[in-house]
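Teaching note: in complex prediction, the entire set of molecules is handled at once rather than each chain in isolation. The prompt given to students was simply: 'Predict the structure of this complex.' The entities are:
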Amino acid sequence: MKHLLSVDDLSATQIHELLELTDHMVEVSSRPIPKVPALRGKNVVSLFFEDSTRTRTSFDTAAKRLSADTMNFAVASSSVNKGESLRDTIETISAMGVDAFVVRHKSSGAPQMITRWTNASIVNAGDGWHQHPTQALLDCYTIRTGLNRRDSFDGLRIAIVGDIKHSRVARSDVQAFTMLGAHVTLVGPPTLLPPSLDGWPVEVSHDLDALLPHLDVLYLLRVQRERMDDALLPSMHEYSSMYGLDQRRAAMLAPHALVMHPGPMNRGVEMVIDPADLPGSQILHQVANGVAVRMAVLFTLLGSGSDLKGDAS
Amino acid sequence: MGHTAEGRIVLSADDVRRALTRIAHEIVERNHGLDGVVLVGLQRGGVWIAHALADILAGIDAATPVPVGAIDVSFHRDDVGLRPIVPGSVTDIPDTLDGRTVVLTDDVLFTGRTVRAALEALNDYGRPRAVQLAVIVDRGHRELPIRPDFVGKNLPTSRDETVTATADGVTLR
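The expected output is the structure of the full assembly:
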C-alpha cells in the first residue's frame, strides 16, 4: 500500500489487517517507554490547510512513537499566504526529502491530486466533504474492541446521527462499517441528508427514539454551526430536542450499546448529557485508538515492506 | 535419525523434551534458584518453549512460580522496509522487568539479529538485572556478537538449509 486516500481503496481484508496491526500499536503505547524504532529516519510532514487539533496531534504522536521525524507545515505562516500554489508547496517540501505527507484540505480530492506531484506516500487526514479514512479505521477499531467483534460486524446495528450531508466522517464510516458487515441507519433532518442516497448501502430514518433500543452503536456527528447560517437548521434548540442525546434518550439505549462522537463535541446540542455519565461512551477511547490506528497506517505505508518479497527470520 | 518428506530428523520429540529438561535444570543452576527469573518467548517460534520450560521448572521448584511472557520484535528489527514484516501475536510482558533475570527463549539461533532486536525491545519494559538466552538449536552463521547461554543442540548447517524446531522434533532440509 503506497497511499491511504479513501476507504474505497481498502478491502475488508486490508481493514482487518490494519486493525490487527493496531492491536500491536496499542501494546506499544502501553509500554513504560512507548516508543519503537520502526520508522527511524523516515520523515513525516503534516500539511493542514484546515484547522484541526486532534487529528494533527494524533498523527504527530503516532509518527513520534514510531521514531519518525515529524515536521508541521503551518499554513497560516507559510508562503501559501504569498500566493504559492499547492503544487509548488508540495514540490518544494518534497525536495527536502519527505517519506509521507499527512494532508488535510478543504477541497475534496486534493490528496489524490498531490500524489501526482511527489513520490512520497500520501495519507488523507480529511478532504472537504469527501473522506477521512483514518477516522473510519479508528471508529472500526473502537467498535471491534468495545463490542469484542474481532472477526466481523455481521448483524451489528449502527445509527449515524446528524449532518450526514457535509460529513466526510459519515461517508467514510458508512463505507467501512458496511464493508465489515454492519447494518447502518442514517438519522437526521432531511436538509442534512445527502440529496441522493443511491448506492449507499444504508437505511434512512428521521425518528431517533424508535431506533434507540435496537442499536449496538449510536454515532453522533458534530453539528456544524455554520450550517445554521445556511438556513439548513431552524435552531440549535430544535435540533437538540429532535436528535440530541439527553438523559431520556440515553436511558432508552441497550446496556451494551456504545456511544461515539468524532469530536469536537457541541455540549448542549448533539450531546446534551455529560458523556462522563454515559457508561457506553467511547469518546476518549476513540482518541486513544486514533493514535494507535495512525501508527498502524504509517507503519503499513512506510515500514511494513508489504510490496517486497521474502520472509523475515 | 531418519529422513522424512520434510527433511532429515535431527532430534526426535523425546530428544527435544530431554533437552528442555536439561536446560530447565541449567537455568536453576546458573541462577542459584528461580528468584526473579522471568521467561520471555520470542514470537513466534519461541513462545511454546517459554511455556514448556515454565512447566518443567514448576516440577523442579513449585514454591517459586516463574512468570511467562511473549515478545514480538517486529518494530525493533534492523531490516524494516527491506523485507515484509508481519507481526505475530501481540507482545505480553507480565510485569516490570526492573531487576529481574530474563531468560529469552527461541527455537533456532541463526544470525542473531532477532535476538538483538529483542534485547532492544526488552529495554522498553524496564532494566533487567541480566538477560540470558535459551534456544533449542544453535545453527551458527552469527552476524552479531551474540551467544546463547542454554543450547539444546549445536547443529552445523549451511546457510541455505532450513531448520525447523518444534515440540515434535528438529528437522533440517
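Point out the following to students. The two ends of chain B are 14 Å apart (CA to CA). Chain B touches chain A through 27 residues (CB under 8 Å).
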